[in-house]
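Please check our next protein.
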Amino acid sequence: MNPLRIGMLTPSSNTVLEPVTTQMLKDLPDVTAHFSRFRVTAIGLDAALLNQFDDRPMITAAELLADAKVDVIVWNGTSAGWLGLDSDRRLCERITQVTGIKASTSVLALFDVMRRRNEHRIGLATPYTSDVQAAIIKSFANEGVEVICERHQGIRDNFSFSQVRPETIAEMVADLAPARPDSIAIFCTNLAGAPLVNQLEAAHGIAIHDSVATAIYGALAALDYDLKRVPGFGRMFSGAS
């Protein structure tokens, strides 16, 4: 039987999501991941940086993945956080229209997880600048999710997100936990949060949803795959409350 092939749309300067995805799938011999890049170098709200997420380069990258006959194409990025979730909904429609392949995104999958778990008040940990963080909080509110506590690093350069130390990520989560949110989102696919999720959930008793992990969740859910076969990366996969 051929393996299920997941196609990942990847920001060009991201160095985290590929190794983390490989780590998450290493015990699933029937699933493989394949990556296609388009240029993303910094995150901000000025026009030049917003234009990085124009559909055209993303669709071109998706068409390259379609050549590999992948079973699903996932946008493994968080731009819908500041652009609004409709941007990801439109992107998925376009990908499927152009390639005939199912599509998902990290952000849409996060909201699927939160809806399934009845989470409406969350904590938000990101590497982004204050204006981007404020835009994310507004987008979440428009979708019925209140960010009751947040931490951000004030970084603009996309490559530099990957250099945020695990200890810093853990500190952000620890700062958010006393507010007792329904869950905490580690929101950035170039932030190495997924390998920390199990220990953070155990330490704080709160579900932790990492963006690379939600991308995997969305891909496998689109393929009706048994999500419980992905242990070690959060309650979202186990169904635990």
About this structure: The chain is about 45% helix and 20% strand. The CA atoms of residues 116 and 236 lie 9 Å apart. The first strand starts at residue 4 and ends at 11. The radius of gyration is 16 Å.
